[in-house]
Amino acid sequence: MKLTSQEKSEIKELLNGMDETKEASLMKKYIQHGSISTYDHVISVVKVSFYLNRRFHLGAADSQLVRGAFLHDFYLYDWHENGYPGRLHGLHHPAIALKNATERYSLTPTECNVIESHMWPLTLFTFPKCREAAIVCLADKLCSSYETVVRKRGFPC
Fold first, then answer.
1. What is the 3-state secondary structure (H, E, C) of 120-153?
2. pTM
């Protein structure tokens, strides 16, 4: 998967500083999969989502796709530590991420659906209702699988 420099610039512009906030800095400290930070994970999901949308002409709105992808794991805690809020992180973190995101940003219904449904089918009754959410759900599975299986074993990116 290779994005052009123009596409990377477009993504940076669409993020509009979201990736440079204090919350984004916190995400760099939390581990998501293997040795991958939550921040690196969401950036990978942003890039893969954008790539899929562009290369396969899926017709998703770039702005909502990128913002939703960046915020999909905006839960802001380390789920590997004993003190994280609640059990079954995989089931609960989409709702926590949505709550955190809506407290800090004005979100569209599409962006909300991207965040709350990205763990489908694990979250059986919270499913993607728009193409942006379906794309991010797929991209998240691809990135998570790669981060957990390939990068954890020491293979280069």
1. CCCCCCCCCCCHHHHHHHHHHHHHHHHHHHHHHH
2. 0.88
